[in-house]
């Protein structure tokens, strides 16, 4: 790792100020960023540690919206009675990220802002139609937030402060785990709302997390397994690597979507 | 260089570190606590697992400065007055190690597991140990040791911590 200054702000305004430093970059749980820096794939001048800011942590429900602070750790989301009660699929997703030690450090905001094409959380944000709140006072719909591999709508120096998830009638996340990395080889998040269904896919596409429009249309008209009869996702644009070909991933998209729909009951 | 201080195995310690200094470097190189091992240095293997404020973390993937003010427990803090902890004793009893390199991380990780789940199933132990790799492939006896330690701690609730 190249050396850097470490800022440890105690409030959001202090963090925003610290982010004005030259080559500043936010540090949340560091479970992706620290390995990246060890490989010298980045050289920030200042890292701004967000984990000491109380207002960025915590989980609260207000009506049909579950709000999770950006610096809330995976272990806290997985173990939260509030999340388990409102959106059990989200708690289950958090509880299967990485391993226990990773979940004790990694945060939801870090995962969403990093937008790894195989990360779990982006599929939940997109599948539930979450709203992402930022330090610039913006509220960005998940549909407009994820722009491609490791790309989001966040501006330079803008911090993701919270994610607000609409509470669905039912939801499920199916992850086909790549056993070495523990990321999703393919993951599918299905959510059923009164006005329709959403299907978000991670791990599969060269463009990062995406919605499977054809499956959404069918499930919105009739939320049942039979609504997906004969439907398959094309292999074009799917990731191909030593773990699986584009056709293999496309096939998994169909399988996992069906499993998620079945699990929604 | 920022000055940091924390409590390690119950003792207050302090030092000067660079921003990039990892917790595991601070423990091993500054404090001389070399029981915490660096296996992969890529957060895969878990040999560097320590407890920070009671919870398991990979000390190779946490900056020392972000542990400023924390309570840290390493393998050196587990034996008390020459007597091994319940988890350590179970590893000895069930031959839960071969070369022993992964053992400090295994012991700390299982200690954390038994904090959150006093009665884990075998499947839950194996699931929990996903982030701890043993290259001697000694998992079977490690899992046996974890289950035995859990039973022992349940039988002696006063000794559990």
From TrEMBL, chain A:
Q: Which SMART domains match?
A: CO_deh_flav_C
Family annotation (Pfam families) = FAD_binding_5
Database matches in InterPro entries: CO_DH_flav_C, CO_DH_flav_C_dom_sf, Diverse_Substr_Oxidored, FAD-bd_PCMH, FAD-bd_PCMH-like_sf, FAD-bd_PCMH_sub1, FAD-bd_PCMH_sub2, Mopterin_DH_FAD-bd
Q: Does the keyword Oxidoreductase apply?
A: yes
Record-given protein name:
Carbon-monoxide dehydrogenase medium subunit
Q: Does the keyword Oxidoreductase apply?
A: yes
Membrane spanning residue stretches: none
Coiled-coil-forming residues are: none
The record, for Gene3D superfamilies, names: 3.30.465.10, CO dehydrogenase flavoprotein, C-terminal domain, Uridine Diphospho-n-acetylenolpyruvylglucosamine Reductase, domain 2
- Lineage of source species: Bacteria, Pseudomonadati, Pseudomonadota, Alphaproteobacteria, Rhodobacterales
Q: Which GO terms describe its molecular function?
A: FAD binding; oxidoreductase activity
Q: Where is the FAD-binding PCMH-type domain?
A: 1-170
Which key words tag this protein in UniProt? Answer: FAD, Flavoprotein, Oxidoreductase
Domain of life (superkingdom) = Bacteria
TrEMBL record, chain B:
Pfam hit, one: Fer2
**MF annotations from Gene Ontology:** 2 iron, 2 sulfur cluster binding; metal ion binding; oxidoreductase activity
The record lists the membrane-crossing segments as none
Which keywords does the record carry?
A: 2Fe-2S, Iron, Iron-sulfur, Metal-binding, Oxidoreductase
* Residue span(s) of domain 2Fe-2S ferredoxin-type: 2-78
List the PANTHER family.
OXIDOREDUCTASE WITH IRON-SULFUR SUBUNIT (PTHR44379:SF5)
Q: What is this protein called?
A: Carbon-monoxide dehydrogenase small subunit
Q: Which organism is it from?
A: Albimonas pacifica
């Amino acid at each position: 790792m190249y050396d850097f200054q470490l800022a440890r702000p105690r409030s959001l305004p202090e963090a925003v100020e610290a982010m004005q430093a030259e080559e500043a970059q936010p540090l949340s749980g560091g479970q992706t960023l620290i390995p990246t820096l060890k490989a010298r794939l980045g050289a920030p001048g200042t890292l701004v540690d967000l984990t000491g800011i109380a207002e960025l942590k915590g989980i609260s429900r207000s009506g049909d919206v579950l709000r999770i602070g950006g610096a809330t750790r995976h272990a806290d989301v997985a173990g939260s009675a509030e999340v388990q009660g409102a959106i059990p699929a989200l708690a289950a997703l958090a509880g299967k990220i990485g391993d226990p030690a990773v979940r004790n450090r990694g945060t939801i905001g870090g995962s969403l802002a990093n937008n790894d094409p195989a990360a779990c959380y982006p599929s939940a944000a997109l599948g539930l139609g979450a709203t992402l709140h930022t330090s610039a006072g913006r509220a960005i719909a998940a549909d407009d937030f994820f722009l491609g591999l490791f790309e989001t709508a966040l501006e330079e120096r803008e911090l993701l402060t919270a994610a607000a998830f609409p509470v669905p009638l039912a939801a499920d996340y199916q992850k086909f785990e790549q056993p070495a990395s523990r990321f999703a080889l393919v993951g599918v998040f299905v959510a059923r709302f009164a006005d329709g269904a959403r299907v978000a896919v991670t791990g599969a596409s060269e463009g990062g997390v995406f919605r499977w429009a054809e499956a959404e249309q069918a499930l919105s008209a009739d939320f049942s397994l039979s609504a997906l009869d004969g439907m398959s996702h094309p292999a074009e644009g799917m990731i191909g690597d030593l773990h699986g070909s584009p056709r293999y991933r496309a096939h998994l998209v169909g399988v996992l979507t069906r499993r998620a729909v079945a699990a929604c009951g | 260089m920022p000055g940091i201080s924390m409590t390690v195995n119950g003792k207050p310690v302090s030092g000067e570190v660079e921003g990039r200094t990892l917790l595991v470097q601070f423990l091993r190189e500054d404090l001389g606590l070399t029981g915490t091992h660096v296996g992969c240095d890529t957060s895969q293997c878990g040999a560097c697992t320590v407890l920070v404020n009671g919870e398991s973390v990979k000390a190779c993937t946490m900056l020392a400065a972000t542990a400023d003010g924390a309570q840290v427990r390493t393998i050196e803090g587990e034996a008390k007055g020459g007597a091994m902890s319940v988890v350590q004793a179970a590893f000895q009893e069930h031959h839960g190690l071969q070369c022993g390199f992964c053992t400090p991380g295994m012991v700390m990780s299982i200690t954390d597991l038994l904090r959150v789940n006093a009665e884990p199933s075998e499947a839950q132990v194996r699931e929990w140990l996903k982030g701890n790799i043993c290259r001697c492939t000694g998992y079977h006896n490690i899992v046996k040791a974890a289950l035995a330690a859990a039973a022992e701690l349940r039988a002696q609730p006063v000794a559990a911590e």
